[in-house]
What we know:
By secondary structure, the chain is an alpha+beta fold. It contains 5 helices and 4 strands.
Amino acid sequence: MTSTDTTQPIAAPFLSLEAVRKTYPGVVALDRFSMEVLPGEVIGLVGENGAGKSTLMKILGGVTRPDSGTITVDGAAHDGLTVEQSIGSGIAFVHQELNLFENLDVAANIFFGREPLRAGPLRLVDRARLRDMVAPLLKRVGANFSADAPVASLSLAQQQMVEIAKALSIKARLV
């Protein structure tokens, strides 16, 4: 007789924060904040104004360094992240305030600064390839508008979809 273990191994957290602290003159924004995010896990972060949510996002984005604590991303421990480390780890943000260029179309907004370029001396944007790159992202967010649509013509909800597609375009592992 043999025994088989049917329990699944517990996944290692993608993100772990341990005793993270951040203060500003006269204000403790985060005090020994700890949390873990497992791969595929969906969590919500709620709190009153001044609870430290924005400070936490700035720390995860590499914009602000914590005073103390440990941030572990995909098994690598850090005392703080740089913007490059955050992006390189696949951490992306969808901000409450939209960060879109209203004078550009959807595709240009999603890949702004990362547009595929044609070969040749002028290195112009390869619009056909750009649309091909954007199409699956728009489908993934359930968008019913074209990659060529001017952002200014979209509703607020549609513009939020563009922001989400932009985060997904960097192959984000945590949004």
